[in-house]
Specification:
- The complex is a heterodimer.
- By secondary structure, chain A is an alpha+beta fold.
- Chain A folds into three domains: 17-25 and 447-581, Aldehyde oxidase/xanthine dehydrogenase, molybdopterin binding domain (Aldehyde Oxidoreductase, domain 4, 2-Layer Sandwich); 31-137 and 193-243 and 248-281, Aldehyde oxidase/xanthine dehydrogenase, molybdopterin binding domain (Aldehyde Oxidoreductase, domain 4, 2-Layer Sandwich), CATH 3.30.365; 288-445 and 592-741, Aldehyde Oxidoreductase, domain 4 (2-Layer Sandwich), CATH 3.30.365.10.
- Helix content of chain A is 24%, strand content 25%.
- Chain A has 16 helices and 30 strands.
- In chain A, helix 9 (358-376) packs across helix 10 (380-386) and helix 12 runs parallel beside helix 13 (513-538).
- The longest helix of chain A has 26 residues, at 513-538.
- Chain B is of the alpha+beta class.
- Chain B has helices at residues 27-34, 99-106, 116-129, 135-141, 153-165, 172-175, 177-187, 208-217, 230-235, 271-281, 285-289, 295-300, 303-308, 316-323, 340-343, 419-425, 432-440, 442-445, 456-475; strands at 7-11, 14-18, 53-60, 63-70, 83-85, 193-197, 200-204, 222-224, 244-246, 256-259, 262-266, 326-331, 334-339, 344-346, 349-350, 357-364, 370-377, 388-397, 400-409, 416-417.
- Chain B has a five-stranded mixed sheet with strand order 2-1-5-3-4. Chain B has a five-stranded antiparallel sheet with strand order 10-11-16-12-13. Chain B has a four-stranded mixed sheet with strand order 6-7-9-8, with helices on one face.
- In chain B, helix 2 (99-106) packs across helix 5 (153-165).
- The termini of chain B are far apart.
- Classes of the chains: A alpha+beta, B alpha+beta.
- At the A-B interface, helix 1, helix 3, strand 28 and helix 15 of A face helix 1, helix 2, helix 3, helix 5 and helix 19 of B.
Chain lengths: 744, 485
Amino acid sequence: MNVNSTVIGKPISRVDGRLKTTGAARYAADHRPVEGRPLHAVLVKSSIASGRITGFDLSALQSMSGFVRFVSHLDGALIRTIKNPVDGAFAAGEEYTPFENDRVHFVGQHIGLVVAQTLEVAEAAAKAVVVDYETSAARIEFADPTAEVRQPDLYNTGEELQVSRGHVEAGLVEAVEIVKATYTTPIEHHNPIEPSATLAVWDGDHLTIYDATQGSVNDKNYVAFGMSVDPKNVRVLNPFIGGGFGCKGFTWPHTLIAAAAARAVEQPVLLVLSRKDMYTSCGHRPYTEQEVTLAADADGVLTATRHRTQSYRSLVGDHVEPCGMTTAMLYQCDNLEVTHSVRVLNRPSGTPLRSPGEAPGTFALESAMDELAEKLGMDPVDLRRRNHTDIDQRNGRKWSSKHLLECYDRGAEKIGWGRRKAPGQWRDGNDLVGLGMATACYPGYRMPTQTRLTLDRDGTLHVGVAVQDIGTGLYTVLAQMVAERFGTSPENVRVLIGDSDLPPGPLAGGSMTTASVAAAVDDGCRALSEKLRARLVDMGHTPGNEPLVIDGGALRSGPLSVPAAEVIPTDVHEIVAEGGSDDTYGFTGGVETDKSFYSFGAIFAEVRIDRDFGIIRVPKMTGVFDVGRVINAKTARSQMLGGMTFGIGMALMEETFIDDKTGRFVNPSLGEYYVPVNADVNEFDVEMLDIPDYDFNPFGARGLGEISNVGASAAIANAVYNATGIRVRHLPIRLDDLLEDLPR
Amino acid sequence: MTSRSEIRFVLNGQDITLDQVAADETLLDFLRIDRRLTGTKEGCAEGDCGACTVLVGRLQAGALHYEPVNACIRLLASVDACHVVTIEHLSGPGGQLHPVQQAMVDHHASQCGFCTPGIVMSLYALWMENPAPLEIEIETALQGNLCRCTGYEPILRAAQAASDLGSPTGDALNRERNHMTGRLKALCDGRRVDVRKGTSRAILPASVDDLAEVLLAHPEATIVAGATDVGLWVTKFLQEISPVVFLNHLEGLRRIEVGPDGIKIGAGVSYTDSRAVLTAGYPHLAAFWDRIAGWQIRAMGTVGGNLANGSPIGDTPPVLIALGASLTLRKGADRRRLPVEDFFIDYGKQDLAPGEFLESIHVPQSKKGTRHAAYKISKRRDEDISAVCAAFNLTVEDGTITAARIAFGGMAATPKRAAHAEAALIGQPWDEATLMQAAACLDDDFSPLTDWRASAAYRLQVSKNLFRRFWLEQQGTGQPVRLSA
């Protein structure tokens, strides 16, 4: 690694900026088949929470000009039955096959699809479908005593969900102070600004799909399985995705339904989900109830930790919100118990949402730490230092690179932690002011990835890999990585991603893409370099040991300089090399190593609360992060700003309400589900320690998409406590939570 | 004069004539599906996210004026005689990036990019009007755009930097302004437009008198001004709205007249266009007005529509009631006038007969000795509906309160005056004790509901606290003590 790189770590503007600012970047719903017009499709969704469909009355549809077809479970085997949600080759959001049978498991389940010549007719026809149901008893309410309760062993990463070590009861006896409290977090929705969309185009038994997906390879394998075709015959294109945050991660039924409908009508079909569809079609973060017990001796050393998470799952989706995984790892504590249970309810399926588990889990854990500090009369930062550890508490391994203490120091200094006063004591005019903090952390994950590196006769490098840029900046980051390896500028690198026909890479989730492609690009560049050196030797040159530089249309090595056009034979146009890595890190069953990989950080928040109205504002947040090497200062910082904004939303406004009687989501819109607007966001101060983690990959980067959202809600809630003396143990903190008890 | 059965407008540089337009067809579907102008995005279909922002230019008193609008809820037929400008029209010759676009790239103001075209269009509209904006002006321009990725700060920096990269003088829309004005004038032929598609029908009356006539003939028609509410009936609820009668193209309803009796605001005047005249007389309304929805909605939506749709949580009714405003309702040639508070009969029920329409709003001139305030309490700072909305108008003479008009939204089934509180003020000394006594009377005035925005107890307590806030503000400059940023 060139420590004085002119490329890595620099604030290079995103290479796709022009396409995005001119509207020329095409997202799934913007595409059209190469030939002809697509038919438009609209979903028909169940309006009951439990039961079966006894029939469809389509009489109103037949007379509609432009109506083409209605497909449902009555069409027979349109889709091959998918038994297992994770078939090895793919991960689906739900473990059921759309249109498999007449069963209804939740309100909003896809039970049919209308296909029509125009969108207008498709919408009218979908509205005109009359569904007859036989309703059965639904379990919707979280506390429904008849709901089945399960205690799953593993999260989808293979990590343990039920953890026990030492003796919690003994640790409680040792303690001088104990905090035991229950914290709740609401149903939340991802709400990327782009709704999911699928354009499915068949050509014989070949299928091309333009899909708003965070994982083209996963999508391809899922659809190929459901359509009973060879995965080689399915191509998924997703060059641009309008955000995802998890809801486009695993593949959801609508993609398969669009593909099945297109085959059934023998024409391309375009299915664009409405904002309301998004609330029941592609997951949400489920509500959680977390009981946390923290016990400490007089010095603040933790003697016992217990974190019990109760959440729910749908009948057909197995997502568990893994809130306690952080607790099992983070602080030194020999007596610990972490449990997770889920109730099986007639609600739509959950799925990972930016930092699943960590975001709601740290709200509970880090709020409890704040409560413990208060009880002990300790500074909250000091309490965390006291329990800091350089050993992964789950397995006794050392961290590959952990600089959390430095994050605490820098963050405290930047926010002006010394200004902090006792709860309720800081007044400024009509405002109560407070400071709070929390620890942030997120696992380092890495998945097998392959790349194709190409040099053309112009001397331009091309890198291809089936990963996707959901807004993170991957196009730019890949160009920088290749440029670094060949001593050139990112402008000389063309990046090909968003196409499942490219060498396979992971889905954009778990903050793992950068680390995964880093290893693959490194190996691909090595392979290309070797090929080029061999070619130079064949040509009679003697390249030295100096790194191969490809710049200005020529290959250079030491004093040697040969134009690319000469190196590449005229009959081949380009030289291609493939490389990659089969290694997995962070997931169970990965590479055997004596180290653990995690990113860490510290988040500090200042809040001001209007005494007359209880309105909370966050004038300043500081985040200091230890996320390995930063590849691009601009794209990385922007990820952090966005994540901290997510944290403000989670702390103060985001919440989906469910009607316990009907099982309907009450506020499925951007008007009534509040994501932060510009005016809700004020000063953010972001710093990254930028310490490379070469144990993790050759570029030293860990992921950073999720961590900035972790801890943010706890930091804000802790600041609210510091400002008011009122401890709010649920999210979001509502307008009416504080007013009554505010200090006058 | 015969009516015209087609709509005509200019899209970017191209003349468009459509003889088949359904009443509920949106501008966005036309752009994206019919014209394949896919730079304009659909994120929510209800005017919240701003990803579909385009500019619509219209002649107003002979001058061409552009405004940012949400194409998702803008009904297509209403762009007759307008110039519609989309993101595709922005780049310079040879594909050179527009200064706003270049600044967005330089400052990393685009991440996933889906909200980006809408944000570029909002900032473009701002840059044309105000190339060197203050931060607060940028924030006001961005109120109607949601971004889920960037945390907004890079977008603000881009907006600040845009003018360093180019001045609006040389911008294409300005260079072609005279030419486009001529093209649009040629489209304004003074005829009624009556356009159909199948059984669906949209009418753009030729004049206010013609509107009265059309409504007498079609009392069942849906009256549409800015479509910021009706647009949602279409996109969210798939309601049948035909026949639709549009009114905000009518110059006769877009007029603002200031006379000795006060301000007369036509029913087609947008929030944006009414701001200057209202805040001239009532400076306290400036900050309040800027918290109504976002820029696009304020540019489209009308004060008349906000009253006529009768929502108990509309932003303007409490303000207008407190100011003592009245309405002119018209049916055929008959007009009647009534105080704004009397217009609201019950939840969803207004004093409006079939075939009748709201023609104008009358706001009295500001009187000496009056003290005013208007408040919007909402969870989200912008683009939110009030949990509580309140407006105060007290007359103080020689230290005694001689008149009081206090109105609340969000506290009852209709926007409503606080009669008991007002009575407790009149004749009493202008001091904090009087105000706090009046505040206590709100228990007799309101029994608010609990909903997911706020609890009944919160609404009542905040309403009382507003009396205290009002008193505190009046001790200083008379300007609102702003809620913390």
